[in-house]
Amino acid sequence: MDMHSSLPFASQPLAAVKATHVKLSKHLTVAQAFQEIATNCLAQIRANEAAVAQTHHEESLHQMRVGLRRLRSLLGLFNSMLQLPDEVQHEINWLAEELGIARDWDVLAGSTLPVAASIAAEIEFEPVRLATKANAQERHEAVAAVVRSDRYFQLVLFLTNWVQTRSWREAISPSNRKRMKTPIIRFAKISLKHAQRRLHKRGRRLKEATPEARHRVRIAAKKARYATEFFQSLYPTRKTKPYVRALSQLQNELGWMNDVAVGDRLLKELQEEQDTLAGTAAYIRGYLAGSVEADKKQLEKLWKKFKVMKLPV
Length: 313
Description:
The protein is mainly alpha-helical. It has 11 helices and no strands.
């Protein structure tokens, strides 16, 4: 099936579309809230697919990936009550991997390398920058083919029907079906407390954490932020806004450190693939590693700030 005839790309904007705010009523059931939030996540994915399918649009790819990450976080929040079929989960993981590889090269070329260039002005960055841009372009072309494919179309079609018709009810137990009829406000409170506890636990030794451990803290921070954003309309803005801001600042700092770790891996690939870039890539990797060490104090400061934040429930 030709995706150009399957999805109305021509009617979609060729611009990045961010997530819209989720607006929930305290009177909604868990099932109704899940449907509202899932619809919001899918809308963000769909709103960016035209630009991803037709252009090398970095921000659209990023926002499409954010929409998918939000959807995956939502499914994680509700996985004690409902689950996707294994084969559909496999397809979501496939799409996430395709988007992630392209995004990694975009970040290295557009964010990480410029920071390194500002630190080490004596190094000639242009050959490495051109190589990373070429790899990013190649990955964008691969992702564009993915979004135009029948495989992607079938995944989106299934997810849309699964959410809108609530066909997920067919596979859940009677006890979970009963839980899905309870008010969302109680489930939201339990979920946010769990997300906060998990983040506190993973960040306990953040100061001495390895890159792998910091990555786990980053994932926990991201899930806590998404969960809070999903449910923030249920609580006063004066409570949710500072909490989300503190989470975002922590996540951004951890994200930068993760970008450096990913960039180091990609630069190592360039070293091995292109001998002419080996020396420059090695220098850049060293400078980036040094910058992470310098940023650890800022991370510790943001972590201390978040630890004293009260959960807005």
